[in-house]
Amino acid sequence: MEKKLFTEKQIDIAAILAGPIPPGFLIYKNYIALGKEKQAYIALASTLIFTVAFFYGIFQVPHSIIDKIPNFVFTAFYGLLVFIFFRNFMAKDVNDAFEAGAKKGSNWAVTGITILGLALNVGIIFGLAMDQPIYDGEVMIVEGNKLYYDAELVPIEDVNKLAKQFKTNDFFGADYGNTARLQFIDDEYFITMLVDQQFWKDSELISNLTSMKWLLEIEFGKPTKLILESVSLSGTSRYKEL
User: Fold this and answer.
1) Angle between helices 21-33 and 107-130 (to 10 degrees)
2) Measured on CA atoms in the order 87, 90, 93, 99, is the torsion positive or negative?
3) Which fold, 138-241?
4) What residues does each domain of the chain span?
5) What would the 3-class secondary structure string for the chain be?
6) Contact 202, 168 (CB under 8 A)
7) How far, in Å, CA of 29 to CA of 12, rounded?
8) Are 62 and 39 in contact (CB under 8 A)?
9) Which of 106, 142, 176, 184 shows a CA-CA span of 20 to 30 A to 37?
10) Is the pTM of this model over 0.70?
11) What is the distance between the terminal CA atoms of the chain, rounded to a whole angstrom?
12) What are phi and psi of 65, to 5 degrees?
């Protein structure tokens, strides 16, 4: 059978476009073609372990810090790791194989592996995200709903006031699974509610929430802002201030 190997450029492009899994699988395929099965399985296992550890580590960093880091920084990080690995551990074997008559792997194969790897990356991220807190800080569970707050800045009495208003306005209903956050910044309260964007144009809902905001401002005795947040499947957030 004709030996086919993927080039450094193909592997680097897969890393840039779709994260750590596609280049790891292409490296695995190269090792198999080179007859190095042990290294192939080590590379594949290392890729999966690195991917899970990498994204898990990102989830442990506070949102306030992660939001300030451009996405290309993460791409550059694992792209550089792939570049260093290939140059130091694979380049010579691949080049020797090409000189001996090996053929270049198909770009269509790279495309398929890249798409599959991207899907696996998204699956891992989604799986990890399910177990991560949505916001930083302490969390109060109210009949299956979550209210996050900074225990050092927000008195528990004010947290209870907000939870009571959420229950009164049916945002914290039994087992709804809704989520909100109460922050104290520059002598102002900021209330963030996770509400899907499709409900932002519901005039009755907006009217009720606006009334709740003014009532809470009186109860808190401080300026209060109410913000609706909608998060897409890709993790992108949109905001609407009332």
Assistant:
1) 130
2) negative
3) GMP Synthetase; Chain A, domain 3 (3.30.300)
4) 4-130, 138-241
5) CCCEECCHHHHHHHHHHHCCHHHHHHHHHHHHHCCCHHHHHHHHHHHHHHHHHHHHHHHHCCHHHHCCCCHHHHHHHHHHHHHHHHHHHHHHHHHHHHHCCCEECCHHHHHHHHHHHHHHHHHHHHHHHHCCCCCCCEEEEECCEEEEECCCCCCHHHHHHHHHHHHHCCCCCCCCCCEEEEEEECCEEEEEEECCHHHCCCHHHHHHHHHHHHHHHHHHCCCEEEEEEEECCCCCEEEEEC
6) no
7) 15
8) no
9) 106
10) no
11) 66
12) -85, -45
For tokens 């699988």, the residue is 25
Written as one letter, the residue type at 192 is: T
If pLDDT is split at 50, 70 and 90, which confidence band does 182 have? very high
Q: If you search the block for the tokens 């709903």, which residue do you land on?
A: 145
Task: Give ∠ CA 232-56-194 in degrees, rounded to 5.
Answer: 30
At residue 177, what is the residue type? G
Tokens of residue 164, six digits: 């009571």
Q: Which two three-digit tokens encode residue 185?
A: 């910044």
